[in-house]
Structures are given as structure tokens and as C-alpha cells.
Amino acid sequence: MGKRPESGSLLPTPHSPLPIPHSPLLMRITFLGTGTSVGVPMIGCGCEVCRSDDPRDKRLRTGLMVEMTGDGGERRMVIDVSADFRQQALREKIDRLDALLITHCHADHVFGLDDIRPINFRHGPIPVFASEGAWRGLRRIFSYIFEREHIGGGLPQLVPHVIEGEFETCGLRVTPVPVIHGKGEVTGFRFGPFGEARAQAAFITDCNLISDESLEKLRGLDLLIIDALRYKPHPTHLHVEQSLAYIAELKPRRALLTHIGHDIKHNEASRRLPENVELAYDGLSIEL
Ligand SMILES: [Zn+2]
Ligand SMILES: [Zn+2]
Ligand SMILES: [Zn+2]
């Protein structure tokens, strides 16, 4: 087993980029989950969407997997680990993880952190990237991970990195894109392989407002994945009309909506979306 992080190691540490796959040939993006915080179906709800037989209306909590394949091998990163992460990892056969990125410290994005342990048992500690604010929350919620006196049970092993600007991992150049989520800040991510004219994607979940400065970081995308909770306005999330307005302004080649609640029925909503916009669904995989 790898070395357990010490409590002091939550201070900013120099990034130690993983070996980069040479000449990355392919970036594959897979939706681990596309649901809002309670998931769809929601416990106790008998609405049309919660009762739907369409597998695309079954939404685990939000998470994204990005895999890079090149001459030098394969690297895999995951953005957010919800309480459904175990189920998602089994479904997608995630036997190894080279990096974990955290958007923010809400329960539906981090409560699966303990489930990285089986990956640690096999491959040792996993580099985890989060903002200073998110680390404060993680340190509080998962204090047992960082307590030296904890005995037994096996602990998640992570190598903490504080996001302070652009960074590199898994053969990807990652640009943090801060967005507003009610009273909090969420880290969105723009990412793409190194080199000119390579595919560029961005994952912007949990937000109700994107500043002009952050919008500038989201131009020229091949794929934009963006929050779209429901049709009606919401204080801390984008609703469909707002998401479409951002998409119209940013003009990505393709856009996918995620973090979806039970107000939205996949096949009905899909028919009404503009040509380059789709609803994401669990298990959807895209190659760029
Ligand atoms: Zn959320
Ligand atoms: Zn429902
Ligand atoms: Zn949130």
C-alpha cells in the first residue's frame, strides 16, 4: 500500500504531473452520472419521469470520466465522486484512476470519496485536485482521512493538490473556470490534450452565473457540458433557457446538458433542443 497523506500535506504541494501519453490520439468523455443532487428517480416520487422506463431518464448523481489514449498508454481522470461513484465505477469498469478533480464540496459531488479505496489498494494514492475552498470542506467532512490516530478500516489515499491556475494531468492541460453557485464558487474545468488544434472540452456543473472573465475561458470549444437543472428558474442552478443562452453566446461545436432533475423527460426535451445541443445521459460516451 502507498503512503498515507499526512495532515500537513493538505497545504499547497507542487504538482507532480503524471507521465503523459505520447501523441495522444483520442480523448474519450463518459458521463458517469447526469442527475441532480437527489438523483432521478427521486425517493418517494411517482411523477412521469421518475416512473419512466427510458434508461436515459435514470440519472445517478453527476460525475464525468475523461480518458486519454496515446502511444504511451492510457490515462484516466474523473471529475467528482458522488455517493453513486461505486456503482458508476463498477458499470464503467474503472480499475485505475490517475487523477480526481473536484468541482465543489457539496454532498452530491464528494460523498463517494471513500470509495476510491479499492483503487488505492491496487495502485496506491491518487492525485486529487480541488480549490482551497473545496479542500477546507473536504478536510472537515472527511477529517478521518487526515487524522494520524485513525486505526484500521483502510483509508482513502490521496495526494492533495490545491488548484491555483492552469495545471497538467493525464496528458491534458486543464484550465480552472470559476463559476457562481448561489453563495458559493464552483470550479468548472476546460481541458484538452497538449498541442495545437487539439479538441477542447469544458465541464461546467452547478452554477447559476458565469462571469465575463470565465466566459472568455469557454470560447472555441468542441464540447461544452453545462448545468441545466430544470425548466423553471432556480436560485443556484441554470435552468434550460439560461443554459441555452450561454450556449448561444459561447458557440461550442456541440453542447450537452447535465445535472438534470426529474422535471425533464429525455425524449420530450430532446425534440425541443437546438441542433447542436443534447441532453446527456448516464453512460453516454463521446470521442473527441
Ligand atoms: Zn450538484
Ligand atoms: Zn419525480
Ligand atoms: Zn452544488
Describe the overall structure.
This protein is of the alpha/beta class and 288 residues long. Helices cover 19% and strands 28% of the residues. The strands form two sheets. The protein has a seven-stranded mixed β-sheet. The protein has a seven-stranded mixed β-sheet with strand order 7-8-9-10-11-12-13. Helix 7 links the parallel strand 11 and strand 12. The longest helix is centred in the last third of the chain and has 11 residues. The N terminus is likely disordered. Bound molecules: zinc ion (3 copies). The site of one zinc ion (ZN) has 7 residues, from loops.
How many strands, what sense, and barrel or not for the largest sheet?
A: 7 strands, mixed
- Give me the Rg, rounded: 18 Å
Structural class: alpha/beta
| Uncertain stretches | 1-16
Q: Specify the overall morphology.
A: globular
The kinds of small molecule bound in this structure are: zinc ion
State the total count of DSSP E strands: 14
Number of helical elements: 8
Approximately what portion of the residues adopt beta-strand conformation?
25-35%
Order of strands across the main sheet: 6-5-4-3-2-1-14
What is the element string, with H for helices and E for strands?
A: EEEHEHHEHHEEEEEHEHEHEE
Mean pLDDT: 91
